[in-house]
Amino acid sequence: MPPTAPSPSAASLRGLTKRWRLPEPAGPLDASLPPLVARVLAGRPHLDAASLEPKLTGLHDPSGIPDLDKAAEMLLEAGRRGEAIAIYGDYDVDGTTGSAILHHIIRELCPDARLMHFVPHRLRDGYGVHVHAIEKLADDGARVIVTVDCGITATEPAKRARELGVRLIVTDHHNPPASVDDLPKADAVVHPGRPDSAYPFAGLCGAGVAFKLAWRMATLAGEGGRAAAGPRALLLDLLPLAALGTVADVSPLIDENRTIVTHGLALMRRTRIRGLATLAERCVRENRPVSVGDLGFRLGPRINALGRVAEADEAIELLTTSDGERIEAICDTMDEFNQQRQSIEKRIVEQACAEVVRLGMDQDGHRAIVLAHGDWHPGVIGIACSRLVERFGRPTILMQRDVDVCKGSGRSIPGFNLHGAVRACAHEVEGFGGHDAAIGLRVPLARLDAFAEALVAHANEFITVDDLTPEVRIDSDAALHELDEMGVMTLEKLGPFGRGNPTPRLRLKNVRVSQSPMLMSSSSTHLSMFVRDDSGATLKLVGWGWGRHAEHIKNGTTLDVVFTPRVEEYRGRRSVRGEIADVRTAD
User: Fold this and answer.
1) What is the pLDDT of residues 364-380, one digit of tens each?
2) Tally of structural domains, the chain
């Protein structure tokens, strides 16, 4: 609960954790659907009844991405000549999965190509494309370098590549320069959101862009604009990699991202990318399908742990090797480093939260958090930022303070462009890049205080006090009789859910608690209760992490409840229950 949230009393539960918002429907109701599903769908303009089951045939033509055809032809030509091709991928999940995608398609189409990989070290090199790395790859014989998930601002590295006679292909999705003239002068700059792009969807992640490039390489290598059977089958095997990169990078699950993730999840256990299939087997119980949550909270963090705590090279190896013993060994290493990452993260979060309270950064007049500490691990700071955003409801930047520079990451709240905010303070920073919601940056130690002051002033101007209280978006009001198994299962077809396509949340109005909440788990962390409406219909509600509120919810209390409906199965029987997002006493 944010520190600013009021303590509930037995007499009044007033939106314990969030502000409630029920927007107007964005479109008309579809009479072919159950009324509840139609109401939810009407508030999601990116979906319609025809897209409830997204098809791969609905993916956009990759040739629409600027320079993508040029890049595909260049890679095929170099590969067929047996030239050395270096894949320069970022160290996070998006970069490593995208690098693996290009590795597999080049190996399939050009067996004689000499493939090299370069992954910058998070601590030693930092994010992005570096001149020294271009020089090293050229010395090692690379004639073509293709970046994955980085490079859109690599002006100097592109210049150095030209001087060395190395062809540079940039593939990226991070915020590009505002002008085409400011793009790096590479041989190809593949980016769906370039200022001159007419591509219909700019929300692809780095792995998504790599998948589109792989797709086009396959069709160019085929006949009549169609990929041959082998490459076509490989593209299906690569979809789970693209799905993992999309979810781990918190890309919006709309448009073709939704299609990629839907089909990638379905193929996750069957992919011939043996390392990914093994990782899925180890992280997800065999008797259930792999979900978006599994990618975001189980598979993704393990791959990320290598780049955060150690070297990301092993992540590339996991996703490209067929050696079963090596795959198992790397998975063991991932588990070990992920546990280390969790321990480091916990310590950083505890220290940072204490500093926020001590310095008054949780007060209304301080609408952004900027902190630096000499002992904070820069590879884990980004996750810690997310934890502080969840707790304090403010955009947060955490940095490791070194001798003369602070390096770190930032995460934002919905509706606040953190990338733009840092750009407004660019005179105080040494370098930065990223998205509206997440950034990486370097700030000279001598400018730290000035930067923090400027960023907070910018945040205070563009963030209201109300914005500091997290908001729950309500898709629709609901009646208990609408919450049957078929209706809830139809709602689930709106998924996969994530950023841009959130899990549906419904509101029940004026329902009575028909049984005092029961505490769940040995630590009484969670609660369950039943509510009833005037018709006598009932619904079981579960509140994960809501155990502390149980004493304030009494039998007979009339409530409004915001919840997510779920179909649960227990001992072969299915039933509908609700997972609580928030409650308040009914007015």
Assistant:
1) 999 999 999 999 998 89
2) 3
